Amino acid sequence: MAQRDTGTEQLIKDTAKRIFFSEGKLHATTQDIADAAGVNRTLLNYYFRSRDILFEQVAIEAREEMSAVLDHVFTAQLAFKEKLQQLINVFMDQAMKFPYREVYIVTELNRTDKAVPEEKKVRIKAFLKEISEEMDAGKIKKMDPRQFLMNLFSLMAYPLITNCLNKSIYNINDNEYLKLMKDRKKLIFEMIYQ
Amino acid sequence: MAQRDTGTEQLIKDTAKRIFFSEGKLHATTQDIADAAGVNRTLLNYYFRSRDILFEQVAIEAREEMSAVLDHVFTAQLAFKEKLQQLINVFMDQAMKFPYREVYIVTELNRTDKAVPEEKKVRIKAFLKEISEEMDAGKIKKMDPRQFLMNLFSLMAYPLITNCLNKSIYNINDNEYLKLMKDRKKLIFEMIYQ
DNA sequence: TTGTTGTTTGACAAAAATGTTAAACATAAT
DNA sequence: ATTATGTTTAACATTTTTGTCAAACAACAA
Predict the structure, then answer these.
(1) CB–CB of B27 and A27 under 8 A?
(2) Which of A37, A187, A44, A158 is nearest to A95 (CA)?
(3) What are the HTH tetR-type domain coordinates in residue numbering (chains A, B) (predicted)?
(4) B183/A144 CB distance under 8 A
(5) Which among A23, A117, A144 is the nearest to B110, CB-wise?
(6) Do residue A164 and residue B106 have CB atoms under 8 angstroms apart?
(7) Which residues, 6 or more positions from B97, have their beta carbon under 8 angstroms from its beta carbon?
(8) How far is the first Cα of chain A from the last one, in angstroms, to the nearest whole number?
(9) Distance (Å) from the C-alpha of residue A182 to the closest C-alpha of chain B?
(10) Which residues touch strand D (CB under 7 A)?
(11) Average pLDDT for consecutive 10-residue bins of chain A (194 residues)?
């Protein structure tokens, strides 16, 4: 396919991701993406054949990027406590850059009525087991381990999705918001781990 | 305007809300909404003039419905503990019905590049003050009260937004999911209030 | 240089979504 | 029954978005 790699294909995908995941413009058109990338719209068809294929490719890579982060932390040779700290650190850094990534994944699934892709559940199950053991050891409050994971991801992801609302509600500017989000890393850890 | 109220205007809005807030189909067209409501698409223009006006009206009412719930609980004549329990109970019931309501509000703001509407901050400020007092009284962990509120809403809202993903990741069906969400009410309260 | 191949562009075509209009319809009042 | 008024519909028009194609362009090889 791409014999002379001009970087255009990657540029288009990166731009699409910026618009969708960072700016949260889920209704962006192919023209919007082309303009933002500074390329002719026809190139989107040249590299991806159709809008739907491009959008799905972006969704697929979003899921892959997500799994990659989680797998990396889940399989790290670390004690649970350190794993947790690293997970919070890495995930929140990504969430601050791409706050709407999960929202994009979900809305694309809702839009296309496509079956939810079966996740590789081995890593998750192993981590759920670790969580259970930590509960037995009294390091974290006893509950359904799935609830524990939902709590964790909720605390990390949601405030960034509702960024614009929070800034209005709590009367804070960009800098202060950034500080609040950085503080959250420590706060979340202390909240779920004694 | 509506001398003979046939209920059509309300039907259109209710249908739009169902599609946007419940089904999470944020890319729905006017035709999609008309079909789902079982009415001629022209009626959307008859009652709302344009698509944009309808969509903004829906967003405005979404914010109003949200504030209404919060205001009601915030100003209730109850002790903080009971207020919190009621808030969790009422908010999660709504979130289970309309999981994507906040997402709709946010994406409409991002789509239209409209200024974030200034919220009535009096009630919020009063509640933030109550939270501070509760912290001083040792009933909740000390932190920035805004973080406390973010925690609370994150824990309530996020798992419902990611419903379809969670079902795949944790291998659960609709019924089990419903039970998990009901259990969360108690779980969230115990997590943030000693 | 010339030919080859992959890339980019503009003009055009097609499809999808939204908006407009006149006429049909229904209901209530005269 | 007839008129008046608000509601609904179908046909049409417009705008927006997406897709196609041939030609121009750029890099590389023979």
Answers:
(1) yes
(2) A158
(3) 6-66
(4) yes
(5) A23
(6) yes
(7) B21, B22
(8) 54
(9) 11
(10) A 4, 29-31, 41-42, 44-45, 49-52; B 1-6, 8, 39-40, 42-43, 46
(11) 78 98 98 98 98 98 95 95 97 98 98 83 93 97 97 98 94 94 97 92
Q: Do residues B159 and A154 make contact, with C-beta atoms less than 8 angstroms apart?
A: yes
Residue among B21, B113, B32 nearest A32 (CA): B113
Sign of torsion, CA B125 B128 B133 B134?
positive
> Taking CB atoms and an 8 Å cutoff, what residues of chain B touch A189?
none
CB nearest to B180's CB, from A23, A146, A190: A146
Give dist(CA B87, CA B72) in Å, integer.
Answer: 9
How far does CA A17 lie from the centroid of its chain?
A: 11
The shortest C-alpha distance from A92 to chain B (Å) reads 14
Contact residues on chain B for A117, CB-CB shorter than 8 A? 168
pLDDT value at position A3? Answer: 66
Longest dimension (CA), chain A: 59
Residue type, B175: N
Which nucleotide shows the minimum CA-to-C1' distance to residue A1? C6
Residue A188: phi and psi, rounded to 5, are: -65, -45
Nearest to A116 among B111, B168, B183 (CB): B168
Q: Considering just the CA atoms, what is the radius of gyration of chain B in Å? A: 19
Residue of B nearest to A113 (CA): B25
Spatial contact of B110 and A20, defined as CB atoms under 8 Å apart: no
Backbone angles phi, psi at B182, to 5 degrees: -65, -40
| Ordered domains of chain A (ranges, CATH) | 7-49 (1.10.10), 62-192 (1.10.357.10)
Q: Which of B170, B26, B46, B13 is nearest to B111 (CA)?
A: B26
Token pair in block for residue A1: 């396919």
How many other C-beta atoms lie within 10 A of the C-beta of residue B6?
Answer: 10
User: Which residue of chain A has the CA closest to B181?
Assistant: A147
pLDDT digits (tens, 9 = 90+) for B27-58: 999 999 999 999 999 999 999 999 999 999 99
Question: Residue B159 and residue A154: Cβ atoms within 8 Å?
Answer: yes
